[in-house]
């Protein structure tokens, strides 16, 4: 059986053989992308290149990208959903298209990792009259020939969602279309997307999985939710971009393939439970030790085991990229992951601090491929233990609050009460429901949902304002602020010292936000000095140059080695005269004179040893 590391390597090697260059995973925190909090799929860090910018490593790339989907926090608990996962990618930036890419996917799955082709089913785009794009017959024919080559006559079914599986092997669906915002109608202007083709693995040809599921009244088909089929990969034929006028072809057609690393491993195991793979089993075994409970064979235990092992892993991976628990932005999700872990651990009978024991297990799983995680183990343990300590107190306090709600004639816990427990004490709904059940009480879910929606609307409004920058925004103002970020970085190093290192950056047309390592609050004098230095570089109207070079050359040039692990081969080096040298994807302005007046608006702490500056350019 392949280990996770072997599978990842086999995948990368296979695509290297087909002329691809390996790019390392980008951070879970998007850089210079104001539109989103997390890297949630493989294409995110590559958006500028998919839109037509030249990539320093060429037109064929392959990678395994760390991804985090915060929307799925409450989905975790079944055998397949996780918030953190890796996406195996192969990318054609205007190079090959369907007729090359689909055969490679098929060859990798059937010859390299030896999945039985009989267990593979595929889907394609059914077409959409409104946008004048027809059914993807080209993909259908390619798949037919591929299946034929292994002795399978592949039948095509349109409408399996109503008719069921039948004898089909290739299915067309309306929503076989991929963009970060979903189907064509939902795409904002400027967003790239296109028809896609998904590969599913069949775990239960005898229909046992469907018939045992709560979906048994409906017909089973590859896209139903019963759990018999698991999507393991998706090839997006990204050839369109939404414009004011509708859909237009991108200057070059791309392919974006994303393979679910955990899920492919589950397919190799021929067991649909991704938590049974070695990407989770070490954590589950440690939890078994800590709780004295068992995962296998105890259905009621599975959900808490899965939730804790997913959440602690996700929180650890996020922390390694700079996200620690807080009430703000990404930190809020870290906090939720850890709190939910503590609550579910209570269900397994773990009442003492345990997060710190699990972290080394997580870092060990990823030590070889993401050494940055292992390196930060001690710091992560420290922060998480502090968070756990505090939360246990809150939780106990919340339990007391819950007890106070219980009066003699209470029949039903109101939606507002459930929401308050959820909001103020981090009580997941399940916990309130369970406690209520123990006391023989009902819970007003309808009102709870209303309360929650009200709250979500408020936070959405906030988010809209904050991320008003638009998609992969490369407006003039954003570009100016991006250049100003390089100047700020250098000025901070000159004035505070060489220990200053960028830990995050987010730019909207209104302001830049720069996170960096520094142990204490900056004094007003230091702030004034930094501003003055940046403004003097602006006034000198220094030209900015870009060259494509290698990592060793970039280091020799004294470049800030921030992104040194980003590309293994060629990198773009941006120089602001002799003042600042940084490896960066761009874009930047041509000379500093046009930036205007740089002003720091705010300097604040965002966790131990980390500071955040918000700054603007005034005209
Ligand atoms: N972008 C596609 C997805 O996330 C394929 O990588 O499914």
From TrEMBL:
<dbReference type="InterPro" id="IPR018163">
    <property type="entry name" value="Thr/Ala-tRNA-synth_IIc_edit"/>
</dbReference>
<feature type="binding site">
    <location>
        <position position="584"/>
    </location>
    <ligand>
        <name>Zn(2+)</name>
    </ligand>
</feature>
<dbReference type="InterPro" id="IPR018164">
    <property type="entry name" value="Ala-tRNA-synth_IIc_N"/>
</dbReference>
<dbReference type="InterPro" id="IPR018162">
    <property type="entry name" value="Ala-tRNA-ligase_IIc_anticod-bd"/>
</dbReference>
<keyword id="KW-0436">Ligase</keyword>
<feature type="binding site">
    <location>
        <position position="588"/>
    </location>
    <ligand>
        <name>Zn(2+)</name>
    </ligand>
</feature>
<comment type="function">
    <text>Catalyzes the attachment of alanine to tRNA(Ala) in a two-step reaction: alanine is first activated by ATP to form Ala-AMP and then transferred to the acceptor end of tRNA(Ala). Also edits incorrectly charged Ser-tRNA(Ala) and Gly-tRNA(Ala) via its editing domain.</text>
</comment>
<feature type="binding site">
    <location>
        <position position="482"/>
    </location>
    <ligand>
        <name>Zn(2+)</name>
    </ligand>
</feature>
<keyword id="KW-0694">RNA-binding</keyword>
<dbReference type="GO" id="GO:0000049">
    <property type="term" value="F:tRNA binding"/>
</dbReference>
<dbReference type="GO" id="GO:0006419">
    <property type="term" value="P:alanyl-tRNA aminoacylation"/>
</dbReference>
<keyword id="KW-0820">tRNA-binding</keyword>
<feature type="binding site">
    <location>
        <position position="486"/>
    </location>
    <ligand>
        <name>Zn(2+)</name>
    </ligand>
</feature>
<dbReference type="InterPro" id="IPR023033">
    <property type="entry name" value="Ala_tRNA_ligase_euk/bac"/>
</dbReference>
<keyword id="KW-0648">Protein biosynthesis</keyword>
<keyword id="KW-0547">Nucleotide-binding</keyword>
<dbReference type="InterPro" id="IPR018165">
    <property type="entry name" value="Ala-tRNA-synth_IIc_core"/>
</dbReference>
<dbReference type="Pfam" id="PF07973">
    <property type="entry name" value="tRNA_SAD"/>
</dbReference>
<comment type="similarity">
    <text>Belongs to the class-II aminoacyl-tRNA synthetase family.</text>
</comment>
<dbReference type="InterPro" id="IPR045864">
    <property type="entry name" value="aa-tRNA-synth_II/BPL/LPL"/>
</dbReference>
<dbReference type="GO" id="GO:0005524">
    <property type="term" value="F:ATP binding"/>
</dbReference>
<dbReference type="InterPro" id="IPR012947">
    <property type="entry name" value="tRNA_SAD"/>
</dbReference>
<keyword id="KW-0862">Zinc</keyword>
<keyword id="KW-0963">Cytoplasm</keyword>
<dbReference type="InterPro" id="IPR050058">
    <property type="entry name" value="Ala-tRNA_ligase"/>
</dbReference>
<feature type="domain" description="Alanyl-transfer RNA synthetases family profile">
    <location>
        <begin position="2"/>
        <end position="619"/>
    </location>
</feature>
<keyword id="KW-0479">Metal-binding</keyword>
<dbReference type="GO" id="GO:0004813">
    <property type="term" value="F:alanine-tRNA ligase activity"/>
</dbReference>
<keyword id="KW-0067">ATP-binding</keyword>
<keyword id="KW-0030">Aminoacyl-tRNA synthetase</keyword>
<dbReference type="GO" id="GO:0008270">
    <property type="term" value="F:zinc ion binding"/>
</dbReference>
<dbReference type="GO" id="GO:0002161">
    <property type="term" value="F:aminoacyl-tRNA deacylase activity"/>
</dbReference>
<dbReference type="InterPro" id="IPR002318">
    <property type="entry name" value="Ala-tRNA-lgiase_IIc"/>
</dbReference>
<protein>
    <recommendedName>
        <fullName>Alanine--tRNA ligase</fullName>
        <ecNumber>6.1.1.7</ecNumber>
    </recommendedName>
</protein>
<dbReference type="GO" id="GO:0005829">
    <property type="term" value="C:cytosol"/>
</dbReference>
<dbReference type="Pfam" id="PF01411">
    <property type="entry name" value="tRNA-synt_2c"/>
</dbReference>
């Amino acid at each position: 059986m392949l280990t996770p590391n072997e599978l990842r390597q086999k995948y990368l090697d296979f695509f290297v053989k087909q002329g691809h260059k390996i790019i390392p995973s980008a951070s879970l925190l998007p850089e210079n992308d104001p539109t989103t909090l997390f890297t949630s799929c493989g294409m995110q860090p590559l958006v500028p290149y998919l839109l037509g910018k030249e990539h320093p490593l060429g037109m064929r790339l392959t990678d395994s990208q760390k991804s985090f989907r915060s929307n799925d926090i409450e989905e975790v608990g079944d055998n397949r959903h996780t918030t953190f996962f890796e996406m195996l990618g192969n990318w054609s930036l205007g190079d090959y298209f369907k007729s090359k890419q689909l055969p490679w996917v098929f060859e990798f799955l059937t010859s390299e990792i030896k999945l039985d082709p009989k267990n593979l089913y595929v889907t394609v785009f059914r077409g959409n009259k409104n946008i004048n794009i027809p059914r993807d017959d080209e993909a259908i024919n390619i798949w037919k020939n591929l299946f034929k080559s292994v002795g399978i006559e592949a039948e095509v079914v349109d409408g399996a969602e109503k008719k069921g599986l039948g004898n089909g092997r290739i299915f067309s669906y309306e929503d076989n279309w991929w963009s970060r915002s979903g189907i064509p109608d939902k795409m904002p202007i400027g967003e790239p997307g296109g028809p896609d083709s998904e590969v599913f693995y069949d775990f239960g040809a005898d229909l046992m999985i469907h018939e045992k599921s709560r979906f048994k009244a409906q017909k089973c088909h590859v896209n139903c939710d019963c759990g018999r089929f698991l999507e393991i990969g998706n090839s997006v034929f990204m050839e369109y971009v939404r414009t004011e006028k509708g859909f237009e072809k991108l200057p070059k057609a791309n392919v974006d393939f994303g393979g679910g690393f955990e899920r492919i491993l589950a397919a190799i195991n021929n067991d649909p439970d991704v938590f049974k793979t070695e990407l989770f089993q070490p954590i589950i075994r440690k939890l078994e030790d800590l709780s004295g409970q068992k995962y296998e064979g105890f259905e009621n235990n599975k959900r808490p085991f899965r939730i804790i092992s997913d959440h602690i892993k996700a929180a650890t991976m996020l922390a390694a990229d700079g996200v620690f628990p807080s009430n703000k932005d990404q930190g809020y999700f870290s906090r939720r992951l850890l709190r939910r872990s503590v609550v579910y651990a209570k269900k397994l009978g773990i009442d003492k601090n345990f997060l710190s024991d699990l972290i080394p297990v997580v870092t060990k799983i990823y030590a070889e491929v993401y050494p940055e995680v292992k390196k930060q183990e001690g710091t992560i343990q420290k922060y998480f233990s502090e968070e756990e300590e505090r939360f246990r107190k809150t939780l106990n306090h919340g339990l007391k609050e819950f007890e106070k709600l219980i009066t003699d004639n209470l029949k039903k816990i109101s939606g507002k009460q459930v929401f308050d427990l959820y909001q103020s004490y981090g009580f997941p709904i399940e916990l309130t429901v369970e406690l209520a059940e123990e006391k023989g009480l009902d819970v007003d879910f309808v009102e709870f949902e209303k309360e929650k929606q009200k709250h979500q609307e408020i936070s959405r409004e906030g988010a809209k304002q904050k991320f008003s920058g638009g998609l992969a925004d490369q407006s003039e103002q954003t570009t100016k602020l991006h250049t100003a970020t390089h100047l700020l970085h250098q000025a901070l190093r000159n004035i505070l010292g060489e220990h200053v290192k960028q830990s995050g950056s987010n730019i909207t047309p209104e302001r830049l936000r720069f996170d960096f390592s520094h142990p204490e609050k900056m004094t007003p004098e230091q702030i004034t000095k930094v501003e003055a230095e940046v403004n003097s570089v602006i006034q000198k109207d220094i030209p900015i140059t870009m060259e494509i070079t290698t990592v060793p050359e970039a280091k020799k040039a004294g470049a800030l080695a921030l992104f040194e692990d980003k590309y293994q081969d060629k990198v773009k080096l941006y120089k602001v005269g002799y003042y600042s040298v940084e490896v960066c994807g761009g874009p930047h302005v041509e000379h500093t004179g046009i930036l205007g007046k740089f002003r720091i608006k705010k300097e604040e702490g965002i966790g131990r040893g980390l500071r955040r500056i918000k700054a603007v350019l005034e005209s």
